[in-house]
Amino acid sequence: MSRLTVLAGPTAVGKGTVSAHIREAHPEVWFSVSATTRPPRPGEIDGVHYRFLDDEQFDRMITGGELLEHAVVHGRNRYGTPRRPVEEQIAGGGSPLLEIDLQGARQVREAMPDALFVFLAPPSWDELVNRLIGRGTESTEEQERRLATARTELAAEPEFDVTIVNHDVRSAAEELVDLMGISRSG
Fold first, then answer.
1. pTM of the full structure
2. DSSP code per residue over the chain
3. Count of structural domains within the chain
4. Residue 184 in domain
């Protein structure tokens, strides 16, 4: 039977990188495309990486019950998971994977308690700080805000069914795929 897998963890832990590896190595895994009110980062494509919406469009989706979960992340932008595509994947026997934040994972647990909830953890706090600063995509102020959020997110690890420590992207990705019950390719 198909079931939803939810991947969450602190900012800069490598959720996106692990997910990118799975996308490449395991095309049978279906990824939800989240909606967000934040502007695209360089190289991000609307409808591929995110559905980039304005506040009014996002509000309409909330009001219409079209989001499985939604949250304000880092005190600034809103993110959400469109409900219908996830439900269609589960009903069709697919292998859906949501890569979302802690707030979203909590809402999904309420809506779909049978999902598998996986926490992606950093090898250490220092490594998390190095990854955030090293990617160079946020201002110093934004880095500080994200690190404050990360402390809270790390404390939520016991809420998850399984923890994967992201020492190495490939290993973390394959461990997640194994948990999903998908055989390794290649």
1. 0.84
2. ----EEEE--TTSSHHHHHHHHHHH-TTEEE---EESSPPPTT--BTTTBEE--HHHHHHHHHTT-EEEEEEETTTEEEEEEHHHHHHHHHTT-EEEEE--HHHHHHHHHH-TTSEEEEEE-S-HHHHHHHHHHH--S-HHHHHHHHHHHHHHHHTGGGSSEEEE-SSHHHHHHHHHHHTTPPPP-
3. 1
4. no
